[in-house]
Amino acid sequence: MTRGQDTPFGTQLRQLREAVSLTQEELAARAGLTAKGISDLERGARQRPYPHTVRSLADALGLSEDERAALFAAVPRRGGDAAALPTAAPSSALPVSPTPLVGRERNLEEIKTLLGQPEARLLTLTGIGGVGKTRLALEAAREAAEFFPDGTRFVALSSLSNAELVVPTVVRSLGLREAEGQTPREALHALLRGKRLLLVLDNFEHLMRAAPEVAELIQKCPDLVVLTTSRAPLRVRGEQEYPVPPLSLPASTRSPAAEEVLDSPSGRLFTERARAASPVFRLEEENAAAIASICWRLAGLPLALELAAAKVRFLDPATLLSRLDRALSTGWARDIPDRQRTMRATLDWSHDLLSEPERVLFRSLAVFFSGFTLEAAEAVGPTGG
After folding, report:
1. Which of 33, 35, 136, 354 is the most interior residue, by most CB within 10 Å?
2. Closest CA to 315 of 344, 287, 335, 284
3. Helix 35-43 to helix 24-31 angle, to the nearest 10 degrees?
4. Tens digit of pLDDT for each residue in 175-211?
5. Taking Cα atoms as reference points, which of 137, 123, 147, 152 lies closest to residue 57?
6. How many distinct helices (H) and strands (E) make up the chain?
7. 198: which strand partners?
8. How far apart are CA 121 and CA 172, in angstroms?
């Protein structure tokens, strides 16, 4: 499908969207934009979308190289654009989760509010492994898309083993090629300076030596906002931390009504994932107490709840409760990272990030069953006693 360059951008966009049978809302979700933003572009209310926006739309529509070039050519020239983004398809569009987000309405609203504040520069979602930081960050980025006319870009960092690779990875994910004589850092600063863009950096916890790079990036690019996920804050100036809590639990495990379990975010997540694993699964009065107990045993941790729910194909809730530790030690989905296929793998990932002195302290703290005070930690630590 080819179109002349004299066809307005909005008309081309509408024709391309209709050709793949997408609604404005569906295209907006794929591109990390808002349905109103798509409508404004197609109606011509917004005639000069930024390169980030056009590239996100081209990625979401799955355009061929010719269609992509024609869409870019239809954008009226702004004059003086210092660093237009390339038309090559990058790997930084927001991933689309195959399952809906459950029980995070309040968290989403709070994070969106934080991202929309004028002083927002660096927001870090922190929490233990498996609490759902990445999933929450992706949904929050979509919800906050209206604040960022230059788009939202996602960069996964979990596969990196060297903090020095963070900036080159971001550069490559954005599809940028530095000019001759430029370092990757200089090219990135030149590209993002003046752009009102949200950059999502996922899984930063093992790359803390690159935290000063992020601090410098937000200093050099005052319109940029960075959203990171990490098991610990970056501890740089300009950072705001948002601790991600586990899901709320059923009010009681003693003879709860099925509705009471389903009304809790953790009970609802377990039930929805269990139904996906086994079409015959039902939350009923007879198994409500067992499901509530599973939620409590797993402390509302989303990853653990999903791991457990996948086992209802073979085990009823009461039996699953009695074999919960074993159920969490086996994998469940082939399309998730190795570090999340079992709870042991998730814990190992966190443990491997500790320094040797921290591991020694961690082993000493194992004597406590249900929490401890600072004084108690000092008493059993390597320098205590």
Report:
1. 33
2. 287
3. 110
4. 776 555 678 898 899 889 989 999 999 999 999 999 9
5. 152
6. 19, 5
7. 152, 225
8. 22
